[in-house]
Write the structure tokens for this entry.
Amino acid sequence: ELHTKKEYRPVAVAVILDKEDRYLIVQSSKGNQPWLFPQGGIEENEDLDSALYREIEEETGIKKDELVIINDNIHQQVVDAPLNRIDKRGFSKGKAYFYILCDYSGDGILTLQEEEVVNYRWVNREELNQYLSSSRSVKIQMTLLALSKIEKLNK
């Protein structure tokens, strides 16, 4: 539906936890190189889970069989783009983010697609905050909201 309206570009955001309950964060190659959860656009006629697996493998080399989706509806939020921003894909208003919680069973050593991602870290919840500070404030708030929902699930 989001593709039909062409208002908000849908984006899958992977909140990936390893066996030690550490989060995977990646450093974007774009802009001021913020640290974020791995994420990427959902293509037309692609479902959320397929987009997640495709983007994660493209950016990090993590294969589908190394991930288990725990919850594909942790948090959803639309973010309006700055008024002067023109989206090259034709979406007029901004992005719609869909946070998905996954368990990871691999060895933790990743193969990065450097056009998208220049670095990665496995961090605990406390360390995560210092990395998030490099991101835009709206993305920090959105990520913290998703994390608070995950923490409530784990209680």
